[in-house]
User: What shape does this take?
Amino acid sequence: MRSRISFVTGLFLIATAAVFDGVSFLLTPLLGLGSIVTVFAYILLFVWFALLGVQFMSGKKALQKLGTMGGTAIIDALPVIGGLAPAITVGVIIVIIITYFEDKEEALKLAAKKKAEQQAVGGRGRSA
Assistant: This one.
């Protein structure tokens, strides 16, 4: 099974999100500068996910992924909770998990299709 997000890439995504959450936490008391960091973090992560082939606007689980990142963005926008909650990190972890199961489901479908094709070819060869 080929996954769009490898284990190491997933770790880098999570670490990057954690750094952004930490910087946002430290800068939120300073005139709300944490929100600037948060906006930059979401832009960077959306681009990174797009480069990995993770789509938020199409696919079976697109609504779940988009809802997860949108929900964490709303949490980050809340005045008190936003600076304290590691919402970016939690959102990235959830999107990675959703993408993993999406890839696994696709791999199972391809394997079933390949098996059905092999059985069809094998069945034709026996009847001749």
About this structure: DSSP finds five helices and no strands in the chain. The radius of gyration is 20 Å. Helices lie at 7-27, 34-51, 62-77, 81-84, 87-127. The chain has one domain: 7-127.
